[in-house]
Amino acid sequence: MYYEFYLDVYFLENLVMNYALLRITNKLLGCSATHLRSLLSAAVSSAASVCIILLYRYSMISTILVSVAANTLMVRFGCKIKDGKLLVRGICLFYTGSAGMGMLFSNLRRMTGATGVRAFVVTTAAAYCCISLVSWICNRLKRKQQRICDVTLFQGGREIHLRGLYDTGNMLWDTTLQSYVSVIDIVPVKELLSEEAAEELAKFCQKDICDKPELLLTLKPHYIPYKCVGCEMGLLPAVVLDTMYLKQNGVQKVITHPVIAVDKTYSSSLRSYQMILNPNLIDS
C-alpha cells in the first residue's frame, strides 16, 4: 500500500493553521504581536514541521522534541511573549486550539471531500472564520470591560464598594439640582443608612407617607421624571449622597454630592455590575 504525500500542500496547510492559532492566541492573551511577526513565526514552524516528517523514520524522540521546541519558539516570538507564565498560558492555548481546529478541519474535509488544493482552500476559509469570530468576541468583551469601573459610595461616615457600568442609554438629568443621574438598586443604598432611615427610604420609594421624614433630610429625597422605550413617563425616587469615587484603569474621579436614582425594579444579582452610571460622568 502506498499513497502520495505533497510536502508543499502540507507546508501551506500548517502555515495557515499556525498563523490562525497565533492570531487567536495573541488576541486572547492581549499581546501586541503584528500580523507579519505571526506570519513569519508560522512559516518557520511550518518549515520545521516538514523537517519533522523527514525525521520521523529515524527517531520518535527527536520528532517529539523538535515539534515541542518549534511550537514553543513559534508561540514565544509569534505572540511577542516575554513573561514565562504568559508563555505557558500561550502554549496551552495553542495546543488546545490546535486540537479543536484539527478536528474542525478534519470534519470539513470529510464533509466536502476536499483534497489537495481544495483542502488548502477549505482550511484557509475555516481559519479566517475562526480568527474573525474570536476577534469579534474579544472586541465585544473588551468594549464592555472598558465600560465597567469600581465605584465607592460614601454617606454619613459609611461606605460601600461595588461595580458600575457606563451605559449610553442612561441619559437621566436632574433639572432641579442640574446634575447627571446614575441608577442603583435600593439594597446597596440601605447599607449606607441606619435601620430607621432605610425603612423611611423604602417608604419614600414606594411613594408612601414617611413617619420620620427628618431622617432623610441629608439625602435630599426627590423625584426625577423619566421615559424609556416601551413605557410611559414615570417618576424615579432619587437621593443625594456625600461622595462617589470612580476608579478605572488606575484613574480615579471624585464626584461630590452625586445624584442617585433608586430603582426598586432594577436587580443586579445576576449581573457583573451593581450600578448604572451616567456616561457623561466620564467627561464631567
Automatic annotation (TrEMBL):
Superkingdom of origin: Bacteria
An annotated GO BP: asexual sporulation
Annotated GO MF terms: aspartic-type endopeptidase activity
Keywords, ordered alphabetically: Membrane, Transmembrane, Transmembrane helix
Keyword S-adenosyl-L-methionine: no
Protein's recorded name: Sigma-E processing peptidase SpoIIGA
InterPro entries, sorted: SpoIIGA
Pfam families: Peptidase_U4
Record keyword Transmembrane present: yes
Transmembrane segments: 36-55, 86-105, 117-138
